[in-house]
Design brief:
By secondary structure, the protein is of the alpha+beta class. It has 2 domains: 5-221, Vaccinia Virus protein VP39 (Rossmann fold, 3-Layer(aba) Sandwich), CATH 3.40.50; 232-275 and 291-367, no CATH class. The protein is built from 11 helices and 19 strands. It has helices at 5-23, 29-37, 49-52, 76-86, 103-112, 125-137, 174-179, 251-259, 280-287, 298-302, 350-367; strands spanning 59-63, 69-73, 93-97, 117-122, 144-147, 160-165, 180-193, 196-205, 208-216, 232-236, 239-243, 263-272, 291-296, 314-318, 324-331, 337-346, 374-379, 391-394, 398-403. A 10-stranded mixed β-sheet has the order 5-4-3-6-7-8-9-17-19-18. A 7-stranded antiparallel β-sheet has the order 10-11-13-14-15-16-12, with helices on both faces. A hairpin with a 2-residue loop joins strand 7 and strand 8. The longest helix is centred in the first third of the chain and has 19 residues, at 5-23.
Length: 404
């Protein structure tokens, strides 16, 4: 590091936190203070300072032999949002699933203070060693860093007032239920169905968990005993469907459908600048039969082979045979309006699927545009008599009940 870098790091650090505050990502003084106190660059030493303090960029810190990411430092904006969700109080006992670089554990230690306790665990010993070294070198050696499978938690230090998971979870393992205090909070990036993920803050309420807040996010999937692969279908070069849990679909027929000319229909529903529609895909995931997600690489979008609503994919529907439809958008020429929602369909029954999709978009716009659902989680076995009016999503250990 040359003589100008410390000053550069300090300025970039301050600018990052200022931005997160101005965006409304950081809403409490305690989280702001923690973010200003803990520098990020010592925890991502191999990254440039610009990368270390980029608000929306994760830093990959470990890859497998194919180049796929295994561990990363989450984007600071996501870190800050999840800390606000967690609502750490002085003296809290905290379990973090996914040690990563140790940066988040240092922030947790700042928030809970000397009277609290932070335990962070990771499945890879080299990740644990790196996090422990970074924590020790930055003055947070009191954080306990352990090598373990995150789905098993760490029973010796339980119960925990707060548990935070920094890897994508498909289920809520029994160990987390056992180790969470009776009035505790769990914040977890949960794959709900069909690849739709939300960071959810759950509060314990009697024998079940109740969502208090949620936000869109993306995380590397958990490994170990909590891992759960998502069923996918490759439709064409650069185009993939991510199916809902337990679903199957005929890949050859759907691939042929994608080769057929597409039909587009438009809803008339505009998305104004600054207006969120982050829960539209969750609405579709919990109301549309045959829900899935379509993911298209840039090459497929540029050739108009597939044009999902977002670069990371979009909500879609298939029937059980030969057709699909998915959410798409087009720019609006009206000042203050970003784009209009629509549907693109392929296959002999694609128009019917597009109609169903458009009907649900219209209903969302009329009744749910500004609302998030409530999601209750129940550990199996559980009483289901009161879940009849809710959308029920089955996991191995947990039943999720979604109510709009």
């Amino acid at each position: 590091m040359n003589t100008t870098e410390p000053d550069t790091a300090a300025r970039l650090h301050a600018r990052l936190v200022d931005l997160l505050v101005s965006r409304g990502t950081v809403t409490t003084e305690r989280v702001e203070t923690a973010l200003r106190t803990v520098a990020r660059h010592p925890f991502v030493a191999d990254a440039s300072l610009d990368s270390a303090y980029a608000p929306d960029d994760a830093v990959v810190t470990k890859r497998d032999h194919t180049g796929a990411a295994l561990s990363s430092a989450s984007a600071p904006g996501v870190v800050a949002s999840m800390l606000e969700q967690l609502d750490v109080q002085p003296g809290d006992h905290i379990l973090e699933i996914g040690a990563g670089t140790g940066y988040n554990a240092a922030l947790l230690a700042e928030l809970t203070g000397p009277a609290g306790r932070v335990v962070t665990i990771d499945i890879d010993q080299d990740v644990v060693d790196g996090a422990a070294a970074a924590l020790a070198s930055t003055g947070y050696g009191r954080v306990e860093v352990l090598c373990a499978d995150g789905a098993q938690g760490h029973a010796p230090a339980a119960p925990y007032d707060k548990i935070i998971v920094t890897a994508g979870a498909w289920d809520l393992p029994p160990a987390w239920w056992r180790q969470l205090a009776p009035t505790g909070r769990l914040v977890v990036p949960l794959r709900i169905t069909g690849g739709t993920t939300r960071s959810i803050a759950f509060d314990r309420q009697g024998g079940h968990l109740v969502s208090r807040s949620m936000m869109t996010c993306g995380f590397l999937a958990m490994r170990g005993i909590g891992a759960q692969s998502e069923p996918t279908i490759a439709l064409a070069d650069g185009v993939t469907l991510v199916l809902g849990d337990g679903r199957t679909a005929p890949p050859e027929a759907l691939a042929r459908a994608l080769d057929e000319p597409a039909t587009r229909s438009w809803s008339g529903i505009a998305i104004p600048s600054g207006r969120t529609f982050q829960h539209l895909d969750l609405w579709l995931a919990t109301t549309c039969q045959g829900f899935c997600r379509i993911v298209a690489q840039i090459s497929a979008v540029e050739t108009d082979l597939a044009t999902p609503a977002f670069r990371w994919g979009g909500a879609a529907m298939t029937n059980e045979t030969d057709s699909l439809a998915y959410l798409t958008i087009r720019p609006a020429d009206v000042p203050g309006i970003l784009f209009e929602l629509g549907a693109r369909a392929h296959g002999p029954h694609g128009s019917d699927l597009a109609t169903s999709l458009m009907d649900q978009i219209q209903l969302w716009d009329k009744e749910h545009r500004d609302t998030a659902p409530r999601i209750d989680a129940h550990l199996k076995p559980c009483d289901r008599t009161h879940l009849a009016a809710m959308t029920v999503i089955e996991k191995v250990h947990t039943v999720l009940a979604v109510a709009w």
